[in-house]
Amino acid sequence: AAKRGGRDRVSRYKAELRIAREAFTRISAGLRHAVERGELAVHYQPVVELPSGRVVAVEALLRWTPASGPVPPDEFIPVAEETGLILPIGAWVLERACRDARACRDARAWYERHGTSVTVNVSVRQLAEPGFADEVLAVLECTGLPADALVLEITESVFAGDADALPVALDRLRGHGIRIAIDDFGTGYSSLSYLHQLPVDILKIDRSFVPAEPGGDHSFTLAVLQLGSSRSLPAIAEGIETAEQAELLHALGCRLAQGYHFAKPGPAAQVEAAFARLNPAPAG
Ligand code: C2E
Ligand code: MG
Ligand code: MG
Ligand code: MG
Fold first, then answer.
1. What is the Cα–Cα distance from 42 to 30, expressed in whole angstroms?
2. ipTM of the modeled complex
3. How many angstroms separate the alpha carbon of residue 191 from the centre of ligand 2?
4. Which ligand is nearest to the CA of 259?
5. Residues 148-190: pLDDT tens digits?
6. CA-CA distance, 221 to 232, in Å (whole number)?
7. Ligand 1, atom 19: closest residue by C-alpha
8. Cα distance between residue 184 and residue 237, in whole Å
9. pTM for the complete prediction?
10. How far is the CA of 111 from the centre of ligand 1 (A)?
């Protein structure tokens, strides 16, 4: 019976591998044409100030909708990174996001009224390209978006590997006024050993550190927030879904937050509505 069970496990494992390989092939084949087929879009989710709820930034989040229906970023981004397709796709996102932010500014809409910045997720594959910093500066130049309106989000695990070249590129971008945020902070390896030497401006606290209920144990949340405040880095709590969580994070000393409780990600046209709701114009 033990042998039989082992065989079952092996064949199940082989079946899973085959399915994963098929999914990889299907996604990478589809992604290859996503840009020219117009299947990509950028949605935006507000980042708000606590406790007022005033919007201070929007995060650009990539959406892919091929004819067969939407594919979540957690499924296609890893494939894009593995195949290198993240290079053209990431370049497309960056330009789209800067263009949208600039267009809103020209329309005297949310950007200009509120001095809002746009934050763009960048993969390590992009960052490792020797021309990356030049590419970002060129996009700012051609879209006319000021450098201080752009934040690049980099996943914490980037700093765990052999990343000697990264600080050079990051320093160069920061020298121009572009800010760098560490995404999913607390989930990687850099939290303790590297934080003091990372060239970063903002920490985004991963939503796994946001307690589900006010009554629970907050020691980890507090520890992560304190790591940031020890370097005077502003922290953004991700994945805030309830008013209780917003209050709790504020009570623990967090000044910025993002999550479905405030606004879900939506197309650029919806951002204006989110602003109207969250940043009401002063009376009179
Ligand atoms: P992320 O950068 O940490 O983005 C936050 C994710 O949390 C987004 O998922 C957002 O929709 C989701 N989220 C926001 N508020 C809540 C909430 O209250 N509850 C819950 N449960 N989730 C919330 P999304 O859009 O599916 O993106 C997933 C990940 O894909 C992103 O995580 C980011 O790492 C990656 N990604 C998205 N767009 C891009 C891109 O343009 N380039 C790169 N390199 N990665 C991207
Ligand atoms: Mg992000
Ligand atoms: Mg991320
Ligand atoms: Mg995150």
1. 18
2. 0.98
3. 17
4. 1
5. 999 999 987 776 665 566 778 899 999 999 999 999 888 876 5
6. 16
7. 239
8. 10
9. 0.92
10. 22
